[in-house]
Amino acid sequence: MNTPILELSHIRAGYGAIEVLHDLSLSVERGQVVVLLGPNGAGKSTTIKVVSGLLRPTSGQLLVAGRDVTGAQPDALARAGLCTIPEGRGIFPNLTVRENLVMATYTGFKIADIEERAYSRFPRLSERCHQLAGTMSGGEQQMLSLARALATDPAILLLDELSMGLAPKIVAELYEQVASIADEGVSVLVVEQFARTVLGVADWAVVLAHGTVQASGPAHEIGDEVLAGAYLGSAPK
Amino acid sequence: MESEVNDDRIQAFTQEIGELKLRGSRGDRERILLVIGVIALIAGVVLAVVGGFQASGTTDLGDQVAFLATGTFIGLALVVLGTALFIRYSVARFMRFWLVRLVHEHRSETDRVVAALREIESKLGR
């Protein structure tokens, strides 16, 4: 069996004296879509911060492509190909769509290539290339942040609450794109509070509550009972 | 799904991760250097003052030169070094905070402009 592209091993992390993640372990295989589900305060976004290098765990190991990179700088991880789309809007609202894409040229890609890749995946963005990003709809803004992330040719994509504040139809559209991104070989770790849409595209699901894994398994096997238990506080230990 | 994985990209990624230089937390290092700067600044001032007093308290030229050399000059060097470290690392922290603040303000401003434009559009019945 191949080494997981991403692995968290017995991670403990938090903010100051408050520990949020208690002995968390999970792994993402190559080309796999893993969804991290859980209610507010479960530690989902903290997990993303640990994986992206923004938060140093107090103990445990972060393994990327089999190497222990615990404590690596987030910019170094991002340059290597670990790309994060943060919660909310990961774009510059006061710049145009094209200018937002120009921001991705730091990775060494030419703007023409970035634009071609972005507009072929999201044709709507090409119609709005000179529009201020902040004046687009929430779904289009998320398309732009996805397009900008993909322009950097990531090996691992971390998505934090992609569906936040969006209509279910738009969320379904975005997750279709996530599925096609995974089909191209990008490993995806998705954090979501609302499970229904994302479970349809995920290979594996991990349910978090109070900073620990309450349940994990193939996404299609995660039933409403498990989710209700985690969200309502009666998850099986 | 595994067969569709882009092996070249994964190989390149694995190589880049393998070559990644792991350093300690930069935040901790900055804080340590900031504290060292403050300590050097205080120690330098104390050393310079003590050196100056000691030098003025003796009429022996050799002693005066020794006090000035070990006290005042080393003290002044520490003051310069400490000030440089303090400014470098406190300004870096401030500039980072300022940048975040600027981005946040731009976002809020854009949101306000967009909301105002939408209100105008709805009033114009478009």
Describe the structure in your own words.
The complex is a heterodimer of chains A (237) and B (126). Chain A is α/β, with parallel strands linked by helices and 237 residues long. Chain A is built from 9 helices and 10 strands. Chain A starts with 5 loop residues before the first strand and ends in a 5-residue tail after the last helix. The longest helix of chain B is centred in the last third of the chain and has 63 residues, at 61-123. In chain B, helix 2 packs antiparallel against helix 3. Chain B has helices at 7-19, 26-56, 61-123. Chain B is 85% helix and 0% strand.
What general outline of chain A do the C-alpha atoms trace? globular
- Roughly how many Å apart are the termini of chain B? 48 Å
| Helix percentage range of chain B | over 70%
Write down the overall mean pLDDT of chain A. Answer: 86
Mean of residue pLDDT values of chain B: 83
Task: Give me the side-by-side strand order of the main sheet of chain A.
Answer: 6-7-8-3-9-10
Q: What oligomeric state do these chains adopt?
A: heterodimer
Brief write-up:
Chain A has 237 residues and is of the alpha/beta class. Helix content of chain A is 35%, strand content 26%. In chain A, the strands form two sheets. A six-stranded mixed β-sheet of chain A has the order 6-7-8-3-9-10, sandwiched between helices.
Characteristic key phrases:
heterodimer; A: 237 residues; alpha/beta; 6-stranded mixed β-sheet; 4-stranded antiparallel β-sheet; 10 strands; B: 126 residues; 3 helices; elongated
How are the SSEs placed, and which strands pair?
The complex is a heterodimer of chains A (237) and B (126).
Chain A: E1 6-15, E2 18-28, E3 33-37, H1 44-52, E4 59-64, E5 67-68, H2 74-80, E6 82-85, H3 97-102, H4 111-121, H5 123-127, H6 138-151, E7 156-160, H7 168-183, E8 187-192, H8 196-201, E9 204-209, E10 212-218, H9 224-232
Parallel strand pairs in A: 3-8, 3-9, 6-7, 7-8
Antiparallel strand pairs in A: 1-2, 1-4, 4-5, 9-10
Chain B: H1 7-19, H2 26-56, H3 61-123
Helix pairs in contact in B: 2-3
